[in-house]
TrEMBL record:
A GO term, aspect molecular function: ABC-type transporter activity
Keywords: Membrane, Transmembrane, Transmembrane helix, Transport
Tagged with keyword Signal: no
InterPro entries (alphabetical): ABC2_TM
Species of the source: Citrus sinensis (Sweet orange)
Chain ranges passing through the membrane: 12-37, 127-150
Protein name: ABC-2 type transporter transmembrane domain-containing protein
Domain ABC-2 type transporter transmembrane: 1-97
Entry keyword Membrane: yes
Amino acid sequence: VLVEVSYLFIQAVIYVIITYPMISYYCMLCNLLYFNYMGMLIVSLTPGVQVASILTFSFYSMLNLFCGFTITKPWWIRAYYLCPTSWVLNGILSSQYGDTDKEISIFGKTKTISSFLDDYFGFNYDLLGVVGIVPIIFPIVLASLFAHFIGNKLNFQRS
């Protein structure tokens, strides 16, 4: 588990440097950590590669669907709060644009960027402290579950 942290930190730094310098490294690192740890957890819970591939694809699709970008927060509120990608998206957008008072024209109305983020996505700049803490909880929980299940508790790889 600890070996993955340094590797994914370097991967997050390189990814963010290439794609978009304003994305916070912390959010991107947490995002890569829980995707990696979820894959490791699913592999430890399944008896074969085929079942793990199907479950991993299903879980990753659900994480991307309920992150708050495709389906906004009011529609599936429980799935939104349980989805780690929604917290990372909230952190990235709130930290970068949550305090911006520049006006934009959206849906035929003139709004500030911060009010648009709050009205449309539900991303409130005042909750940035909570949004900074929650994304680190998901990788810790997933890594702990992986460590627990890869042990002798549930191990399909034993001969």
